[in-house]
C-alpha cells in the first residue's frame, strides 16, 4: 500500500491534470519550484499545510479534497484512477460551490436515476 505522502502526491497530480496544468504551470501559480511539485507528486517530499492550502486554492478545491483517495479492492490506489473515478472527481469539483438546496435536489435526482437503471 502506498504511503500517505504518495497518496497525497498522486491526488495532487490527478487534480493538476484535471485542471490541465503542467507541473511548471502549477509551480508558478503556487510559487514553488517545478522540481518541488514533481517531488510532491511522486511522494518524495512531505508537503506543509501552507502549501496544501495554496495548492487546493489554485486547483479550485477544498483542502479536504486532497485527501479523497480512490480505493481498489480494499486498498488505496497508487495508480492513476480509472475513468469512473475521474468523472466522480470532476463532478465533485464542479458541485463544490453549489448551494445546499440545489445539492439536495441533485442528490434526490441522482437517487431516482440510479433506481430506474
Summarize the structure.
With 117 residues, the chain is mainly alpha-helical. The chain is 62% helix and 3% strand. Helix 2 (23-30) packs across helix 3 (34-41).
Describe the protein in words.
There is one protein chain. The chain contains six helices and two strands. It has a two-stranded antiparallel ribbon. The chain is elongated and about 50 Å long. The relative contact order is 0.15. Helices cover 62% and strands 3% of the residues. The model is unreliable at 72-78 (pLDDT under 50). With 117 residues, it is mostly helical.
Q: Beta-strand percentage?
A: under 5%
Specify the helix fraction band. Answer: 55-70%
DSSP strand tally: 2
Largest sheet: 2 strands, antiparallel
Average pLDDT: 84
Shape: elongated
Task: Please report the distance between the alpha carbons of the first and last residues.
Answer: 35 Å
Amino acid at each position: 500500500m502506498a504511503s500517505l505522502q504518495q497518496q497525497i502526491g498522486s491526488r495532487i497530480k490527478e487534480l493538476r491534470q484535471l485542471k490541465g496544468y503542467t507541473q511548471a504551470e502549477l509551480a508558478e501559480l503556487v510559487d514553488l519550484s517545478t522540481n518541488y511539485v514533481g517531488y510532491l507528486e511522486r511522494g518524495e517530499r512531505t508537503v506543509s499545510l501552507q502549501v496544501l492550502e495554496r495548492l487546493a486554492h489554485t486547483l479550485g478545491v477544498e483542502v479536504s479534497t486532497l485527501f479523497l483517495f480512490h480505493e481498489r479492492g480494499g486498498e488505496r490506489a497508487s495508480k492513476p484512477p480509472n475513468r469512473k473515478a475521474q468523472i466522480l472527481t470532476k463532478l465533485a469539483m464542479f458541485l463544490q460551490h453549489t448551494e445546499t438546496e440545489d445539492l439536495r435536489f441533485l442528490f434526490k435526482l441522482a437517487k431516482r436515476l440510479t433506481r430506474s437503471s
